Amino acid sequence: MRKMNLFIFLLLAVLVFSGCTKKQPTALDNSGSTNGTIGQDNVNESKSESDGEIALRDLFLKDGSNAHYEGEGNEFAELDIEVARPFEDYVVVHENNGGSLVRYIYKIEPDKISILDKKVVELINDFPSQAELDAMDPIGIYLEKPIKKGTSFGKWTIVDTDVTVDTPYKKFDHAFVIEMKDKDIVNRKYFVEGFGEVKREDIMQLEDGEFLVTSTLKTIDE
């Protein structure tokens, strides 16, 4: 029980430190962007994509989509995300957990999705310009091909590629799962082609059992 209290305290400390932002409806300024038509449909295919594997561009929701994730196990597990595809190969995701608003910037490359930026922001502002995005150096890897069991990138490993996932939104077949282990904590993300992340799990092993926190897709507004 002491470990669980410490885990919850650390989660709260990180969120408070990163800054608080209340959930509120916002809208991104797409002026000067491609409104997702290039970023979603015309990214150069890698050889594996042309051979019928999942296209990395299909592991995000459509440009302008808003999604809500039901949370269990922790008050910050409930999520609202907004997805934008401002320029070719780039995806911007704003994620609000009720305690902080985090902006992620991704670049879709032939055989991986790079993380260009991850930062807490106060509001959903205009996109960085294409020149600013082009000048960014990756800070990590979000996903990497091949999408098959055993593929590793950073601290993550693909552990399954044919999983059924029940969500409040719908039941998904053929999801793939990535996993990161760190001492007594296991983090998992479930991906579905055409949707991206549909579920997250954070599992902490305690003396009296498991402490589970989940975020699961509930609604999508495109």
Note down, in words, how this protein is organized.
This protein has 222 residues and is mainly β. The protein has a single domain (19-221), classed as YmcC-like fold, CATH 2.40.360. 14% of the residues lie in helices and 45% in strands. The protein has 4 helices and 12 strands, in the order H-H-H-E-E-E-E-E-H-E-E-E-E-E-E-E. It has helices at residues 2-18, 37-41, 47-50, 130-135; strands spanning 66-72, 79-84, 90-96, 101-108, 112-121, 140-144, 152-153, 156-166, 171-182, 185-192, 196-206, 209-221. A 12-stranded antiparallel beta sheet has the order 6-5-4-3-2-1-12-11-10-9-8-7, covered by helices on one side. The longest helix has 17 residues, at 2-18. The radius of gyration is 17 Å and the shape is globular. Residues 1-48 have low confidence and may be disordered.
Write the layout of secondary structure elements.
Elements: H1 2-18, H2 37-41, H3 47-50, E1 66-72, E2 79-84, E3 90-96, E4 101-108, E5 112-121, H4 130-135, E6 140-144, E7 152-153, E8 156-166, E9 171-182, E10 185-192, E11 196-206, E12 209-221
Antiparallel strand pairs: 1-2, 1-12, 2-3, 3-4, 4-5, 5-6, 7-8, 8-9, 9-10, 10-11, 11-12
